[in-house]
Design brief:
Elements: H1 2-16, H2 22-36, H3 43-70, H4 86-106, H5 111-130, H6 138-157, H7 162-181, H8 187-210
Length: 211
């Protein structure tokens, strides 16, 4: 009974931390962070950024995944079978690429946000390539990317909210435990995903502000 309950909790956590939702969570964090830092950006502008992010990185790729499920190409939204992951990841990468362009050309978002989006797009593309030979965790890639994005925000604002960094590290650890509980990945696949997402979203901004 205890095992069943813990598995249900792991499934709920996996759903809450679904990779296609993470960019939207990140944009909401940026909105809160900018508001606290009193940057002169109106609320309606942030709503465009948040809902645009939800559309391009969430609803658009998820709709394509649901179509593939309906047609029998994949079994579930988590795409648990490695041999089913390539095309969904390609579609997701395209959605992320459109998102990056939307932020840059349409919204003229702050440079650090555009670079985070670009890094996230690269991370998804690398996950698609790696998946051809080896399974890597998309959940931890997304969550690692969220941490990298927050670290980029810290560079941009010259601030370091230690409580937020610690919170995100705890969330990443909880996600790792949940995915292990569901036997979705090995520890190495989880750590590899985390580092991939973290580095891809943080390094572009680090280069911008240090080179």
């Amino acid at each position: 009974m205890t095992t069943q309950i813990s598995e249900k909790i792991a499934k709920v956590l996996s759903a809450i931390m679904y990779p296609l939702l993470i960019p939207t969570y990140g944009m909401i964090l940026f909105y809160i962070g900018f508001t606290l830092q009193m940057f002169p950006l109106p609320t309606h502008y942030w709503m465009v950024l948040i809902f645009g992010t939800l559309f391009f990185t969430g609803l658009l790729p998820l709709s394509l995944i649901l179509i593939m499920i309906k047609r029998g190409h994949i079994k579930d939204i988590y795409i648990t079978e490695p041999n089913e992951r390539t095309m969904p990841y390609v579609y997701t990468s395209m959605g992320f690429a459109f998102w990056t362009y939307f932020l840059y050309a349409v919204c003229q978002a702050p440079t650090f946000i555009v670079l985070v989006a670009l890094g996230a797009t690269v991370a998804i593309g690398l996950v698609a390539l790696i998946n051809l030979k080896w399974k890597v965790s998309a959940h931890l890639t997304a969550l690692g990317g969220l941490l990298g994005g927050v670290c980029s925000f810290c560079l941009y604002c010259s601030t370091l909210p230690q409580w937020l960094i610690i919170l995100l590290l705890v969330i990443n650890f909880v996600a790792m435990c949940a995915r292990l509980k569901l036997n979705a990945h090995t520890p190495l696949q989880l750590v590899a995903g985390f580092l991939l997402g973290l580095l891809c979203t943080f390094i572009p901004d680090w280069i911008l502000y240090h080179v």
